[in-house]
Amino acid sequence: MRDRDLILIVDDEPQIQRFLGHALVAAGYDTCTAGNGAEALAQIAAQEPDLVILDLGLPDMNGKEVIERLRLRSDLPVIVLSAHDQEMEKIMALDLGANDFVAKPFGIGELLARLRASLRPRRATRPEVIRQGGLVIDLGAHLVSRDGETLRLTPKEFDLLAALAANGGRVMTHHKLLQLVWGPAHVDDVPYLRVFIGQLRQKLEPDPAKPALILTEPGVGYRWAQPEESPP
Amino acid sequence: MDYRMTCKEVIKTMDKSHRVTPDRRMKSQSPPRLPSDERRWMTAPRLSGILGAAVLLITVTLLARNLHELLPENVSILLFLMIVLVCAAAFGFWVGIASALGAIAAFNLLFLEPHFTLHVAKPQDLITLALFLLAAGLTGFLAGRLREQVDAANGRAAALEVISQLSAELAGADNAEDAIRVALRHLHGLAQGPVLALMPQDGNLRPLAALPAGYVPEASDLDAADIAFRRGRAELASAKGWSGSRLSFYPLAGETGRGPGPGPARGPVLGHARLSPDRSDREWREQAIEVVLGQAEQALQRLALTERAEAERRRAASEETRAALLASLSHDLRTPLSTILGAVTTLRELGATLPADSQTDLLEAIEEESQRLARYVEKLLQVTRLQAGIAVQMTWVDAGDAAQSAVQRARRAWPKARILAEVEPLPMIRAEAGLLEQALFNLVENAVKYTSGPIRVTGAVEGAEVVLKVIDSGKGLPPSLAEWIASDETTGAPQGVPQGMGLGLPICKGIARALGGRLTAGRSASGGAVLAIRLPVPPASE
Description:
The complex is a heterodimer of chains A (232) and B (542).
Chain A: E1 6-10, H1 14-26, E2 30-34, H2 37-47, E3 51-55, H3 63-71, E4 78-82, H4 87-96, E5 100-103, H5 108-123, E6 129-132, E7 135-138, E8 143-146, E9 149-150, H6 155-165, E10 171-173, H7 174-182, H8 190-204, E11 214-217, E12 221-224
Chain B: H1 3-14, H2 24-27, H3 37-40, H4 47-66, H5 73-91, H6 93-111, H7 123-172, H8 176-191, E1 195-201, E2 204-211, H9 219-231, E3 247-251, E4 269-273, H10 282-350, H11 356-388, E5 395-398, H12 399-413, E6 419-423, E7 428-431, H13 433-450, E8 455-462, E9 465-471, H14 479-486, H15 501-514, E10 518-523, E11 529-536
Parallel strand pairs in B: 6-8
Antiparallel strand pairs in B: 1-2, 1-4, 3-4, 5-7, 8-9, 9-11, 10-11
Helix pairs in contact in B: 1-7, 1-10, 4-5, 4-6, 5-6, 5-7, 6-7, 7-8, 7-10, 8-10, 10-11, 11-15, 12-13, 13-15
């Protein structure tokens, strides 16, 4: 087992690889690079990285294809770098199994936070109880309390909360949430999901108008805000 | 087979666009008039026929009179019968009947008792008379029918010839006016009188052409055409002695999707002189005229469709290039921005843990990418300026200086690239120095980005042009790109252009044009691409 996580940077722009290399090394990771999709798949097989940062606009194949091929044999975390005009591709990439995305241009802090959120479950087993501020979510006992006071949630609301909180810090697409909570027949019922998210926010958020726990990723899904752990 | 069917089938085989629209004159107007089987054999006798019959009759009468003694009576009567048959067959029903009466009269006068009177003594002579009339009538009828069939066949053949010629010519017409002129010429041939074509323009009609040459349409013609145009139906010629136009006007449907019926027609209007009602060939001429009109209409609609399809294709293509341009533009802008933002945030947030040389490298990256961004922004501004059509400030410029300065700038931007300047002393030209330098710089930039090996920038005079070339050592331009450079398009880059090339070449082309010159593409002896900006040398600078 390596003591530093190995990150594969897949981007056809040498300048992006250049600054990401410096930044990730400084942040305590090892890096390797690939300039196109084929090279990326070869590097993944050879180097077995712990995480892949994947640009969606690759010259030889699109990012989706890389994820699709990758997901056939591995659940290696993938963070997608996307541009604003690649919205659809981004959502498809996430639905295909990418773990998260960062929109270009981005600050390094944002990328590192996503990186940590995606790497975390590989190191720790899933906790039974999630504590955050005054909020306690007991996944085994199906209990939620804030500041010692038990909150009343319907079973669906609890399932939705559990799906979000268990993946704290990572984006959950509409598709993924609907499938997890309501099943494959309801993957397109996004308005339905929106209603339940609204109810959860009413019950959980200190100020439901300015959500601080369940964050909206416009057009993509929701993200459970997780307080930053100290970097490794 | 009906004549109409024949024409339609000819059209079908000749004109694949027959499905575009049903010809309203053929289908939805008055029921088709069949060839006049019932009437033709009774057509009015001609003078020549009457005279011919008279001559024949007199000849036979004299002959029979003189040979009276030699011939038996029944031979004489056969002679007369023969003449009646000949007259009926040659000159038609009425002449046949007349000659039968004449023959009976002559026979009666000469051979029947009492001689030299028309008195009929014996009842059997009345039967002879009746038989003569019957034979004459029957023969005249049969001959008339036969002649009519011959006429019809000739007419049909003539019409088919006109139509096939028309079809071929219409197929060759590449705009509405040409098609109308073609139709008009054939219409003139068929109507054998003045014909007139009018085109719609801003909701009104404007005379386009008239035949015979020199025919000046009268006010009544224009009025009638206008009525046909506004009402969307035929305006027939007024008969002789009545006021109104002597021409019949037919509005053509200009656009597909406009069915027959009332309401203003939007297509051209064709008018032709009324066919004289006593022409024996009127039938097929009228029918052929209808086919000509229908064909012209179809041709117009085909042209309109083609035009629309072409416009649609152009629009789609320009949308595609615009989308490609936008995509490449967003890539070109976002990549340096990502690097700058990423490097700056890295320095700020991780600066403490970064080794010194990493910090230096990040700062260099920021500098390089800022310059790259500045170049893009510069290009964008120029595109905007070229597209906005802002006037170019032409001054006397030494093209060699502009080339040298572009080379200097390129060497600063890409210190590792081998850029050679081979510029001869050049005459002064009229240009805007900044634009010219930018165009050359863009060409060098493309060469640096997409090829390796030395890049030559040359300047020389070729004929009346100053030619500034950027010659790379790559594999040459993709054919689609070379084609695009040779085309008139300036709006966007062609398909299949590598990212980042999105702006450079359209700008070069735009600049070359704005300076009164052009951008050309070629191939060097070693196979590399040669992109040349060619600018005219003004006479005064020689």
